[in-house]
Every structure is written in C-alpha cells, then in structure tokens.
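Supplementary notes for students who missed Thursday's class. We covered one full example, reproduced here. Read the sequence, then the structure, then the short commentary at the end.
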Amino acid sequence: MWLTLWSLVMTIALPHLQAMHMIDPQSTLDCHRRLYSYTVAQRDSQGRTCRDTINVMSCWGRCDSNEISDWRFPYKRSYHPVCLHDSRELTTTILRNCDPDVEPGTERYQ
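Structure (token representation):
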C-alpha cells in the first residue's frame, strides 16, 4: 500500500519538480512562480510568542533590459520590463506553536 501511495505521489509531483530544475537562471528571461517559505513570529504584550512556518507563492525571474542613447530629452530610450504579480490576496493564518498563556489573538498572523 505504501509503495502504491509513494508511486502515485511521485507520478504527480515529479514532473513539476523536474520542470523547476530544468529552468536555467542564467538564461531564462521569463517570470516563474515559486513557493517561498518563511518562519514568522508574533509577540503579545507580555512578550510571549506564537511562531510557525508559512508558505507564500510569489514570482522570480530576470528580464532583458536596455537603454539606447537618444539626442532628445531624456537622452535615452529605456526598456525595463519587470515581473509583476497578477494579483495580491491578503490572508490570515493561525500560528500553531504558541507559548503557554499567550494572549488571545496573538496566534492570528496577517
């Protein structure tokens, strides 16, 4: 049973993992999605903390940019494309690792 479950997980996850490893950061000029992990902590008024690791989807990449001189002001033509998010979503998560007797609401991280 575990072998079957492991095989299923690898069948689903492996193509995604391989695709990420096939991206050459030195040559790609595209924006790519990536899951970043952060360790966050929040303190209450007594100094007790709640902490956890959260995951945030963001983008990374580099862009081919240039400037060409021009005789007219501002004396250059610039082309600097950047990676942009499609949207932003404000979310709240509950931090799971709290000190004993932490004040209510400290576990809510936004």
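Commentary. The chain has one domain: 25-109. Residues 1-18 have pLDDT under 50 and may be disordered. If anything here is unclear, bring it to office hours.
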